[in-house]
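Tutorial sheet, problem 5. The two components below are modelled jointly, 724 residues in total.
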Amino acid sequence: MTRITMVGAGVMGTALMFPAADNGNDIKLVGTHLDTDIITRLKQDHFHPRLKRPIPANIQPYFHTEIAEAIRGAEIIGLGVNSRGVHWAAEHIGPHLQAGQIILMVTKGLESSDDGELMILPDVIKSRLPASIREQIHYAAIGGPSIAGELAARRHTNVIFTSRNPDILPKLQASFATPYYHIWTSTDIIGIEVCVALKNPYALAVGLAAGIAEAETPPDIAGAKMHNYAAAIFAQGLAETAYLVQKMGGKLETVYSLPGAGDLYVTTQGGRNSRMGRLLGMGKPYSDAVEEMPNETIEGVDASVSIAPAIDAAVAAGKLSGEALPLLRKLMRIVMRNEKVEFDFDSFFSQLPFNAPKRLES
Amino acid sequence: MTRITMVGAGVMGTALMFPAADNGNDIKLVGTHLDTDIITRLKQDHFHPRLKRPIPANIQPYFHTEIAEAIRGAEIIGLGVNSRGVHWAAEHIGPHLQAGQIILMVTKGLESSDDGELMILPDVIKSRLPASIREQIHYAAIGGPSIAGELAARRHTNVIFTSRNPDILPKLQASFATPYYHIWTSTDIIGIEVCVALKNPYALAVGLAAGIAEAETPPDIAGAKMHNYAAAIFAQGLAETAYLVQKMGGKLETVYSLPGAGDLYVTTQGGRNSRMGRLLGMGKPYSDAVEEMPNETIEGVDASVSIAPAIDAAVAAGKLSGEALPLLRKLMRIVMRNEKVEFDFDSFFSQLPFNAPKRLES
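Model answer (structure tokens):
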């Protein structure tokens, strides 16, 4: 039995507690200040209003005001806040941490550091914890295709748990693995975190094709879908992911397995990134499209905005090739500068050993 | 201007002639014995009944009885028959070939040779041409996500042309590249042909998840889709592709770009493989499912059946690890032995440097 505390009672943080609960662990689920309604309901009848199902009996709900009590004595502390909540989480758990605890990042994202470096979220969290404790905490993360509602329905879900410290991985695996939650482990935390963060912008980009086809006048019935277009974006997204992962010191096998290809695939199958992609593909400038999705966190947009400064700095410093990332950089301009959706496909795959198209006018 | 003859007037062979025609080439489109209705209609008013649109004026239709005339003097001979028609095509074009002609394979597939080796289709064609001419012909192929109806609608489509002989690639690229048809070139014909053949069985496998979810009683609304399941299959399919490509001497970058990830993605977005996957996922044995799709070629099934002997032989001879290919081998048993759809997920990714799940009972 492991004592597990999850901070963040949204769908993903809560869903991850289902396999943990099925293993008979002692689980505390702490809402953030945004989750008060959820925790109130959970305390009342254990029903999660957004997952639309009861949570297992051995998950105890806590308000964020009770966070100190929930963290004390936990062996594993999951962070399931959204990507904008990572700094909040560091601030609120920091004072209560104890040496030897494991922080398990469920939240996905990358950030530009103050000096323009691309940082993975476990490192962001670490950098924001009190200096007195940060070296005594272990850091881990999860990658792989995992839609929360399906995990909570105990559907087969396959993921990779990762940490730079291989010694903590068996405990994590043993605490969470069930017959429906299949866990591989890897020390490639860089590769995994880069993959799972980039899947959001790239899935948004894949979703553009549906909007372009939908808005076409007159519609071309026989060629109604634009799957070829979407698939080229998918492939370029994965190739750019491979480039960035390798440049940052991650491993290629992480890209063509669960954290890269698998998670990108699942993220293209619906959700908010795809919906934003469709709106932009229909020709709406970003500033208009975002008004059609009020109060929604669109991770693909947030990730583009949060990593843009580091990408630009790395390109300017010659550490990254701008030509290797035409899709990501164009997407950043679409959501940050209202640029029109239009790709120079012939600029794709320039880092791979293929002979490129002759840059025909299009 | 290039003289191009396409053998096979189905949707893909014909669609590929659209960019070729837009480049002002001299094009002959030869139907097989199965395409007589199509050629009759094309000769009448240039309307293709399956693409549901007129073909460009500079494409001249030919009956299969006129094949000798169509092949004489062609610089490039495309083969766009279905995978079962490759032997037929070799037999019917063989006697008319002239030294220096290029055969461009549009058909996808792999075959087991008589001595149990896995063969790519360009090598199959070569082996079946008259010995007197086969060494004087150049062989090339196309890989990448390319739904025929979209290409004929002049939608952006991104592909790789490949040949062992790099000298013929610029001519192919120049003959077919247009502002909507983007062509990279590569000499990794092994990697590309393995990727494009395997996408069919793996896309069928991805499609199983939808059927499993749909057949569930009672349905679980909140976890209604099984995208996590599908995504794990997608990722394992790509990882197995990477394994086979590398074992056969192909390149990894082919796997995580257009021919691998891109083409697998597009093939999961609908079509006959997905429909068969759904039927099997719903619990129908293959022998029943196939009766619901009469007279349809299901490339994922055909590929599984045609490569199974070579895979089994290579595993028996120790040239391939059976443990590296659990998904493909299970799929073969599903379509060849009516086995039930049920995967041992914990057996996935065993060739990658991850620590595997503890093989829990499921």
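Marking note: Residues 15 and 119 of chain B are 26 Å apart (CA to CA). Full credit if you identified this.
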